Amino acid sequence: MSDAQVAFVESCCAFYHHVQSLDRDGEFSIKVADLIEKTHGSRDEGKTAPPKFFVEVTRQTRFSCDACGTQNDILGRFGYCSTCGTRNDIQMLEHDIEAIRTELLGGGKTTIALKEAVDVFDSVGRNHARQLVAHVPMTPARKEKWGRANFQQIDKIPEDLKRDFDIDVLKKVSPSDAEHAKIMFHRRHVYTHKGATVDQKYIDDSGDTSVTVGQLLKGEKKEDIIRLTQTIMKMARNLRDGFHSIIPVHEQPIAYHANRKVVR
């Protein structure tokens, strides 16, 4: 929140406390400017001038929290719900994946869809890693490691997350889907950095024996990209759940929202 918004909330709390102390029924009006000045002082009293109040139409990203239903308006795109503390990365990822699938099924290139799918997963992974670095005590070496973690390195990331944080991103992901995702991630690297030309490193890292060194990859099947996006969503949800087992959400607003949906 802005300084003015914080001041306003503090002032409302102080005013509410004052009204309760009166111990009588009635109507009590709140004049924003007067309220903030009364609570935070003014220049005439030798105090720091209260922040200038202003109405923000919007910041940058509005989203309704999937967990508790709160309407949020945040700077940037990724963040925590202001009520329950659930991160919105998975909601944003779902939107991105749906857009990728729509473009792909509408005739888009599979190589572009592959690159974008891996990139959005990498962004979500890095976001969670940065939050772990910021909020979980760890050694300098581990901070450095996760501060520059690359979630495109699908060979290392699952093992490292499990070892360092007990987060299992492959939970309920079948071995065949995990192996398929591994190959797709490595193919993305070949398309992006090797001009689509297979090298020995790709074969060694991916275990893909269907190609030979020097062979040109000529695109992927649409069903392989769709399958990859499904696996990516499973891994991302596992990451989010593991993250919130370390940095818990507030359960009360989530339970309240769930009860309201049942009543309706």
What does this structure look like?
- The chain is mostly helical.
- Helix content is 58%, strand content 3%.
- The chain is built from ten helices and two strands; from the N terminus they run ααββαααααααα.
- The chain has helices spanning 3-22, 32-40, 89-105, 110-135, 140-147, 157-165, 175-193, 200-206, 222-246, 251-263, and strands at residues 61-64, 71-74.
- It has a two-stranded antiparallel ribbon.
- A hairpin with a 6-residue loop joins strand 1 (61-64) and strand 2 (71-74).
- Helix 3 runs antiparallel to helix 4 (110-135) and helix 4 (110-135) crosses helix 7.
- The protein is elongated.
- The mean pLDDT is 89.
Could you describe the largest sheet, including whether it forms a barrel? 2 strands, antiparallel
Could you state the oligomeric state of the chains shown?
single chain
Low-pLDDT parts are none
Q: Which structural class do the helices and strands define?
A: mainly alpha
Relative helix content: 55-70%
Which band does the percent of strand residues land in?
Answer: under 5%
The best one-word shape is elongated
Mean pLDDT: 89
Largest sheet: spatial strand order: 1-2
| Total of helices | 10
Number of strands: 2
Write the H/E string, N to C.
HHEEHHHHHHHH
User: What is the C-alpha radius of gyration, as a whole number of Å?
Assistant: 25 Å
Gap between N and C termini, in Å? 32 Å
Features:
single chain, 264 residues, mainly alpha, 10 helices, 3% strand
SSE order and pairing:
Elements: H1 3-22, H2 32-40, E1 61-64, E2 71-74, H3 89-105, H4 110-135, H5 140-147, H6 157-165, H7 175-193, H8 200-206, H9 222-246, H10 251-263
Antiparallel strand pairs: 1-2
